[in-house]
Specification:
The protein has 3 domains: about 220 residues, 2-Layer Sandwich (Aldehyde Oxidoreductase, domain 4), CATH 3.30.365.10; about 150 residues, Aldehyde oxidase/xanthine dehydrogenase, molybdopterin binding domain (Aldehyde Oxidoreductase, domain 4, 2-Layer Sandwich); about 260 residues, 2-Layer Sandwich (Aldehyde Oxidoreductase, domain 4), CATH 3.30.365.10. Helices cover about 30% and strands about 25% of the residues.
């Protein structure tokens, strides 16, 4: 970065009162927050995205407050990202500490508050590592250089004649030093930096890392373990009421009439009726629920016809958009020595976060503040603006560290419902969805039908490959293998259930289908599955993780471990810029319909590793979650009603279901870091499915697989 770019993009303010002065454009929430931070150095950036109305005078570009260095030496970092258990709070702390040259204990993160933090995009798509970590590193590196330049100006020494280590600026030639904390107390800093501006700012190379690349436990872990942490469902406001909402009896049902009189005998309960929305607020959740049940018994609904889960896959195919196989692919398929076709089916599944949707809404005149659990604060803010016809600066959304998301908390239904009740009652309202509500009314991972065609030439090599994915999506749909003629197309359908994002989106479905089909093609070619993949993979990152997983698993020695009903399978893939491979050992009892996963080994590579234990936890969590989708998780429904909307009937993995798991983290310090929260899930199901076929000769082409072992397809 050049000196001109720094002058254009960074602003240093020596005191909070100057930053918050009239005319700068910061609203009262930001001013109050900066006053709480106290005097110090605030570094803001122009030309990058931000929430709020602030604009640099004369440019129309947003001003973003990213770092504040206080007189006590504490560094406050602002980010719009959310902590939902994936470790972003620790990772971003490491990024700031690394570039500033301070201990991580001196860095505190302010996350996901639309009135205070920049809009760093939603927390999804494994984007925190490749996008927000570099932004924080750049800001911290800029702050370090600016403080060094300020010291040079104050000491009247040459620019860049100082070093910065452990939060101390040192001018060795004159044996002078000053801490960041002391610099934050020095006057006329803004004037000093105008005299001397650093010419470039470079983040530390991987071989220079001291904080990044090492273990940093999640900040606030003690509060989580002891129960002191306040999740969205734990927020309490003065005078707060508790809300409940009347739900329709089935999907698409329309409210025709309702009598609110039964709640009249409950003087502590307030009933709100607005169109199809009916809700109650009361001093406790039990009273609110009693009021909702009382008025709900009087409701008359018009219900709609709705397909069942038994009809799901035919329904998706019947309502799918049309797609054509490209001529070069269809010709190659027709001319090949051998063709194969297969159809894979993917059920709806739920995200099942530990914490269901929750929100607390509070009005102050025409200004609304909502505390909620979401992965996209600005989307929730936008939904609230639209629902209540408010301007952006009238709505503040605060996201405390949240109890899980997995792609399932992008929207703000609970926030809007709580705000409706709060506006009607004139009190803050707390709304917590039940597990049944979460299973029924939150969106699902899309179901899908995946139709595959492949062909082999006379040498047993892939000659052509084609994929139609109906409804579940296009993530990970393209084959990574070398095939002369190939195409993959996503086709839309008319989904019977509400669907949306899920960990790795459709990449899990597409990898399950493709990697299972690769084993089918290998069998047709008379080839061993690992050798067949190596034959069609160029040298590089995907082949490297495949070989790392196979070596750690002991793939070459699997024949010596065989027994009745024991099988071995593998798979590999790439998504979000990272690479994964998995090997599985299973035991299959066909008569009992049992699949027992006895070992899972996975190799994963996402560039330079920032926090090894956190990445290890992410991979292990993805493997366990993938195990549920592979074997047992499926949403069932009939007549517009979810029929397994409880954890007793919806089977997520329990402790006894989890086999020994071995993770191989392939570190690539020569490559940029990318996200690790999603891709590790995609290789689990196909590795298990291929192992089942190896064990008993039955090819399972549906997720989940349990319940289909006795039905060869």
């Amino acid at each position: 970065m050049t000196g001109d770019e720094l002058t254009d993009r960074t602003v240093v303010a020596e005191r909070h009162d100057r930053v918050a002065a009239p005319g700068h454009g910061l609203d009262s929430d930001r001013r109050a927050f900066l006053e709480q931070l106290g005097a110090g150095v605030l570094i803001t950036f122009a030309g990058v995205a931000a929430t709020g109305p602030e604009r640099q005078h004369g440019t129309g570009r947003p001003i973003v407050a990213r770092l504040h260095i206080g007189e006590d030496g504490m560094v406050t970092v602002m980010t719009g990202k959310v902590e939902v258990g994936q470790g972003s709070r620790a990772q971003l702390t490491q990024a700031a500490a690394e570039e500033l040259g301070v201990a991580p204990s001196l860095v505190r993160m302010v996350m996901a508050d639309t009135a205070l933090t920049p809009d760093d995009g939603g927390t999804f798509g494994s984007q925190t590592t490749p996008r927000t970590v570099p932004a924080v590193r750049q800001a911290a590196a800029t702050a370090r250089r600016l403080l060094g330049a300020m010291a040079c100006a104050l000491w009247d020494v040459e620019t860049d004649s100082v070093t910065v280590t452990d939060g101390v600026i040192v001018h060795a030639a004159s044996d002078r030093s000053v801490t960041f904390a002391a610099m934050a107390q020095t006057g006329d800093l803004a004037q000093a930096v105008r005299r001397v501006t650093p010419e470039d700012v470079e983040a530390a190379r991987v071989d220079q890392w001291k904080v990044m690349g090492e273990t940093l436990p999640r900040p606030g872990m003690r509060d989580i373990v002891t129960g002191a942490h306040r999740y969205p469902s734990d927020i309490v406001r003065p005078g707060m009421l508790y809300g409940k909402v009347l739900r329709p009896p089935s999907y698409g049902a329309r409210l025709l009439a309702i009598d609110l009189a039964p709640a009249a005998g409950m003087p502590e309960a307030i009933v709100v009726h607005d169109g199809d929305f009916v809700g109650c607020a009361a001093p406790n959740s039990w009273l609110a629920e009693q009021a909702v049940e009382a008025v709900g018994r009087t409701a008359r609904w018009e219900e709609q016809a709705h397909p069942s889960s038994d009809e799901l896959f035919g329904y998706l195919k019947d309502n799918a958009s049309q797609g054509d196989v490209p001529r070069h692919v269809s010709d190659a398929l027709a001319q090949a020595d051998r063709q194969l076709e297969a159809c894979y089916e993917i059920s709806y599944i739920q995200h099942v976060p530990m914490e269901p949707r929750a929100a607390v809404a509070e009005w102050d005149g025409d200004r609304l503040t909502v505390w909620t659990g979401s992965q996209v604060p600005t989307r929730v803010q936008g939904e609230l603006q639209e629902a209540f016809h408010l301007a952006e600066d009238q709505v503040r959304v605060i996201i405390p560290d949240t109890g899980g998301g997995f792609g399932g908390k992008h929207s703000g239904e609970a926030a809007v419902e709580a705000a409706r009740l709060a506006r009607a009652t004139g009190c803050p309202v707390h709304l917590l969805w039940t597990r049944h509500e979460e299973f029924t009314w939150a969106y699902f991972r899309p179901a899908g039908v995946i139709e595959l065609r492949g062909a082999l030439d006379g040498n047993g090599h892939l000659a052509a490959y084609h994929c139609f994915n109906i409804n579940s999506g296009g993530s990970g749909i393209q084959t990574p293998y070398e095939v002369p003629h190939h195409e993959a197309t996503e086709l839309e359908s008319e989904p019977p259930l509400r669907q949306g994002s899920y960990r790795a989106l459709a990449a899990t479905a597409n990898h399950f289908a493709r990697e299972s089909f690769m084993d089918e093609l290998a069998t047709a070619a008379g080839a061993e599955p690992l050798a067949f993949r190596r034959q069609h993979l160029p040298a590089g990152r995907l082949r490297d993780v495949l070989e790392a997983a196979a070596e750690r698993f002991g793939w070459a020695e699997r024949d010596t471990r065989r027994g009745d009903g024991i099988g071995f399978g593998l798979s590999c893939g790439t998504e979000k810029g990272s690479f994964v491979a998995a090997c599985a050992e299973v035991f299959v009892d066909r008569q009992a319909g049992v699949i027992e996963v006895r070992q899972l080994t996975e190799a994963f590579e996402c560039g330079a590793i920032i926090n090894p234990p956190n990445l290890q936890a992410q991979v292990e969590g993805a493997i366990i979650q993938g195990l549920g989708g592979a074997l047992s998780e499926a949403v069932t429904f009939e007549n517009g009603r979810i029929t397994n909307a409880t954890l007793a009937r919806y089977r997520v993995p329990r402790f006894p279901d989890v086999p020994p798991v071995e993770v191989v983290l392939v570190n690539r310090p020569d490559l940029e870091s990318v996200g690790g929260g999603e891709t590790p899930i995609v290789a689990v199901a196909p590795a298990i499915g291929n192992a089942v076929f190896d064990a008993c000769g039955v090819r399972l082409r549906r997720m989940p697989m349990l319940g289909h072992v006795l039905r060869p397809t």
